[in-house]
Amino acid sequence: MYGTLAIARRALDDLADFTGTEAIEELRALARPIEGLRVLNLSVTGFGTGTAELLNSSVPLFTDLGLDCHWQVVRASEDATAVTRAMYQALAGVHERWAREMTETWLRYAEMNAGLLTERFDVIIVHDPQPAAMRSFVTDRDLNDTKWVLHSHLDLSTAQEDVWLLLRGHIEQYDAAIFEAPSFARPDISPRTHIVRPAIDPTSPRNMPLPDDVIRTVLERYGIDPEKPLLCQVSPCDVASDLPGAVEVWDRVRERAPGAQLVIILTTDPQDPPTRACYDDLARRANGDPALWVLSMGNELGNVELNVFQRAADVVMQKGLRKGYGLWVSDALWKERPCVVAPHPGLQEQVVDGETGFVAESTPAFADAVVRLLEDPQTAARLGANGRRHVAERFLITRYLRDYLRILHELSRGR
Amino acid sequence: MLGSVPTTPRSLEDYRPIIGDEPAEEILRLAAELKGARVLHVNATAFGGGVAEILGTLVPLMNDVGLQADWQVIKGADEFFHVTKAMHNSLQGMYYDWTPAMLETWLHYNHVNADLFDEEYDFVVIHDPQPAGILTFLEERAARSGKWIWRCHIDLTDAQVQLWDFLRPHVQRYDGAVFTLPAFVKDDLAGPAIFAVPPAIDPLSPKNVHLPTETVNAILERYGVDPQRPMVAQISRFDPWKDPLGVIDVYRAAKRDVPDLQLVLVASMASDDPEGLDWHERTVRRAGEDYDIRILSNLNGVGNIEVNAFQSAARVVIQKSVREGFGLVVSEALWKGRPVVAGNVGGIPLQIINGETGFLVNTTEECVEKLMFLLRRPAEADRMGAAGVEFVRRNFLTTRYLRDYLKIFCQLSGRETAAAPPPAQVQPSRS
Questions:
Q1: Which residue of A has its CA nearest to B76?
Q2: Average pLDDT for B386-393
Q3: For residue B320, what pLDDT band results from cuts at 50, 70 and 90?
Q4: How many CB pairs under 8 A join A and B?
């Protein structure tokens, strides 16, 4: 038995306001043949990651759809957690020195977690590759019929070679693999590969509608002038997010849009040693300017405040991104905010240049695009409205459920 | 010049409707004595933590009432911040093997920061131990001017002797030393005039502003809490001193009587804090499959507004601490008009008038009893909550904090007026 997570009960029908009843009916029809399917989701952590957020939204909805869906967190200790973190970095393409003791620790915990698997499930979905090896240690005959799925929320295309080779043999034991985009997948594995893009939850505190006076109150308390243009970037505090570039864009925008304000919301705690240097660099460039706010979700800024800032922003920017999707952009598009993003595959799936926002690379081009949106409210409104439609079609949780139901369907055939 | 931290302007007048005319006028009278005084606050980080939060309000308010206040952050490399983190823990009672190299690192960076110090101030407030050595090096080069105040936010009761002995000569040079509670002061600290200034909450911050009921309910629902059913909450770190497991036991005992009761536990955790994560897991396990217990944290994106909503909606707020610094979260909850049942430790007895704004408890049984009392008598709970708002209004709002500082400045600079007795003593705890 692993750590079971208490998840809020949720009704799929609550989403009907956002997706229409047709989409909900389609999901119910898809779920009917696999009613009662016992599904276990295993993840490394219960919160603080995009993976956890997706599970938090989707698991109760699968339950509402009639599946017997569970979410548990694998067991780890301090040494195992350190190894898991190092593996995460290596898989994400940041070089890590991988020692033999790390492999030993990793396998020891995989074996221990395999031993904790005592219940029967029809499908076990292992989220992210770090705990993937446990599959190799499951010998119980009762579990022979269980289908194993690896859902990698990570882009594995540039994974560190030695760590990938260590992992690959274990992934070969799986029945299916899920990636977030074709470009994140590995061509060198044999389980059938599916693509399930990530999704946002329109009812989550990050996206729920907010009354105007709550928005006004919060902006006032932070000293943001609602009469002046507001730019917003949400991103981790890392070099690839190009936060200094975002500040530079804003500096250029101010020349043409006097009084423009910038809010940067960091999704990682700037007190962590790796992010501290990046934060200091940002603070230096900000140079005590009262129209620039640097706020952090690692501290006390929560989902509702993020929601407020996105709703209040005239333009949402994403000057850079290391990996993955940067799904905050979909959160912003859902709020009909026009976005300007860097040319990055994950971002460009959300922002189609000229349709749902602008894609720009150089700082001057980026600033031009922002100014254009500030000066042309009609274009801004059109792109914003398109953005919401685009997200509704491609990046809502209902689409995620549909993709998943189809995969579960396929796996349970002949059950 | 160290790094200056930008702050959002604030106006005392925004607080006047909340605190009333008399306290506002008192502040203005004190500020008039100090008009134009140059004040510098120095701490280690512009970001995160209670000190940065306090300065973000205090500094602009000082400017608003006519002082010239600035807030600067010391410079240092990772090696320095590793040492100061250890220093912080060690002063709170954790044992470290202090090597000469570690102490040398601290001295070195204080020396560097003292060399960067090139302006003159009337009052310099140094927060916590990280920058406390700057004064020593300024005195060495005869560059000291103005009154120096060491503001220690840490409870020094259990400080590791070896480190305190090292630090003491540096802080003895100050004109004043400000602690959160008289009990936090070290007996052998001689030299500076000693003041006790309890912390305070900002009624205008997103954590404390009034939220419309629909918004509160909508937030509750998004986090899986049913606004139609009674809920109790505890907002605190997950560690043995806040007893989250005990809170679950208390809730279970009460639930026998109030079957539809819900419990919300909100933790603030650092992703690099294994102890916090470990206690989180223990708490989740204790909760088991009772889904009326919601365990949330900043790592789920629970922030200021969410905490505000949970406090506002709770029938009763619990703070079952068995050891506590000041426990300002108690005042935060009282400010939402909710009665608080809390451990009789640290600064909590200063915030709760037992039986009037909530209850002070010493055991789990007592906690259950008082919680049940308040759950069974909603009118009484509301009445106590209302009394709590008034108590916090008078004693624990950020304007009182501002006033205390102004009084200290007045006293240290010989501007003592009849209206400004020094806040050397805080009220003794009630029980």
A1: A280
A2: 97
A3: very high
A4: 142
Q: Does A205 touch chain B (CB under 8 A)?
A: yes
Tokens of A113: 């977690």
Question: Does the structure show a pLDDT above 50 at B428?
Answer: no
Judge whether B207 is closer than 8 Å to chain A, CB to CB. Answer: yes
- Across the interface, whether the CB atoms of A300 and B304 are under 8 A apart is answered yes
Nearest CB to A205; choose among B47, B222, B270 = B222
| A403 has a chain B CB within 8 A of its CB | no
Q: What integer is the mean pLDDT of B60-80?
A: 91
Condensed to tens digits (0 to 9), the pLDDT of residues A354-368 reads: 999 999 999 999 999
Contact between chains at A279 and B47 (C-beta distance less than 8 A): yes
Residues of A whose CB is below 8 A from B276: none
- Alpha helix ranges (H) inside A122-172: 134-137, 161-171
Give the CA dihedral A260, A261, A266, A270, nearest 10 degrees: 120
A97 alpha carbon, distance to own chain's centre: 27
**DSSP category for residue A200:** B
- Contact (CB<8Å) A272/B271: yes
Q: For residue B374, report the phi and psi dihedrals to the nearest 5 degrees.
A: -75, -35
Decide if A303 and B301 are in contact by the 8 Å CB cutoff: yes
Q: What is the pLDDT of residues B328-345, one digit of tens each?
A: 999 999 999 999 999 999
Distance CA A265, CA A305 (A): 10
Candidates A56, A300, A327: best to mutate against B (most CBs of B within 10 A) is A300
Rounded average pLDDT over B178-196: 92
> Does position B167 have pLDDT exceeding 60, yes or no?
yes
Total residues belonging to chain A: 415
Q: Are B9 and B60 in contact (CB under 8 A)?
A: yes
Q: Which fold has domain A212-394?
A: Rossmann fold (3.40.50)
The DSSP symbol for B397 reads B
Which pair of tokens denotes residue A151?
């859902």
**Inter-chain contact A306–B301, Cβ cutoff 8 Å?**
yes
**Cβ contact B325:B180 at 8 Å:** yes
Neighbours of B242 (CB within 10 A): 27
Q: Which residues of A touch B206 (CB under 8 A)?
A: 217-218, 221-222, 305
In the structure encoding, which two tokens stand for residue A94, read together? 């940041």
Give the model's pLDDT for residue A3: 63
> What are the structural domains, with CATH classification, of chain B?
3-200+397-412 (3.40.50.2000), 213-395 (3.40.50.2000)
Q: Are A245 and A253 in contact (CB under 8 A)?
A: no
Nearest by CB to A3, from B81, B285, B297: name it.
B285
Question: From start to end of B93-157, where are the E strands?
Answer: 123-127, 147-151
CATH code reported for the domain at A3-199+396-412? 3.40.50.2000
Q: Would an 8 Å CB–CB cutoff place A9 in contact with chain B? A: yes
Does A297 contact chain B (CB < 8 Å)?
yes
Q: What are phi and psi of B395, to 5 degrees?
A: -120, -25
All residues of chain B having their beta carbon less than 8 Å from the beta carbon of residue A273 are 78
Q: Which residues of B touch A203 (CB under 8 A)?
A: 222
Residue A104, classified by CB atoms within 10 Å of its CB into exposed (0-12), middle (13-18) or buried (19+), is: exposed
Tokens of B132: 């406390």
Contact A237, A322 (CB under 8 A): no
Question: Does residue A326 come out as left (phi exceeding 0), alpha (psi in the -120 to 50 range) or beta?
Answer: left
Domain with CATH 3.40.50.2000 in chain A: 3-199+396-412, 212-394
Which residue from B8, B49, B78 is facing A222, i.e. has the nearest CB?
Answer: B8
| Contact by Cβ (8 Å): A325, A198 | yes
B93: left (phi over 0), alpha (psi -120 to 50) or beta: left
Residues of chain A falling short of pLDDT 70: 1-8, 140-143, 270-274, 287-288, 298-299, 414-415
